[in-house]
Amino acid sequence: EGGLRFRLQPMPAMAQLSNYNDALITDLNRDGKPDVVLAGNFDADVIALGRNDADHGSVLVNKGSGNFRYQQLNGMSVRGVSKKIREITVSGKRYLLFARNSEKLLAISY
Questions:
Q1: Are 107 and 95 spatial neighbours (Cβ–Cβ below 8 Å)?
Q2: Contact at 8 Å (CB) between 80 and 36?
């Protein structure tokens, strides 16, 4: 809202299926509004919590006025526990990099 005043809004239900370890703010769909790319999951052996591994690549698409719509990464599946996500540009092409536990670095071009 501005002036260090915020309005709380629930995340879309599909973005609450797992925990998230990192988020990247970027204009993923190039509409001039910052979107949120989420990286997460948790699969440690904690009997009381169980596995939290239902997320396979989530984006919160900025619809304006503080509203976000959940969308899965187009045609891509980010499996496993992602700890970090970063964006890079190589030869004019943009990539999302997902650092995952016990897995190779995953690069997704867009």
A1: yes
A2: no
Q: The whole model's pTM is what?
A: 0.78
Sign of the dihedral defined by the CA atoms of residues 81, 52, 17, 10, in that order: negative
3-state class (DSSP) for residue 15: helix
Structural Rg of the chain based on CA atoms = 15
| 4 alpha carbon, distance to own chain's centre | 25
pLDDT (tens digit per residue) in 47-88: 666 666 667 778 899 999 889 998 887 766 787 788 889 999
Q: Which residues on neighbouring strands pair with residue 25, listed in sequence order?
A: 36
Cβ pair 58, 38 in contact under 8 A: yes
- Residue in the structure block whose two tokens are 């809202």: 1
Long-range Cβ contact pairs of 63-71 (< 8 A, separation 24 or more): 63/33, 64/33, 66/7, 66/9, 67/9, 68/11, 68/12, 68/35, 68/36, 69/12, 70/11, 70/12, 70/13, 70/14, 70/15
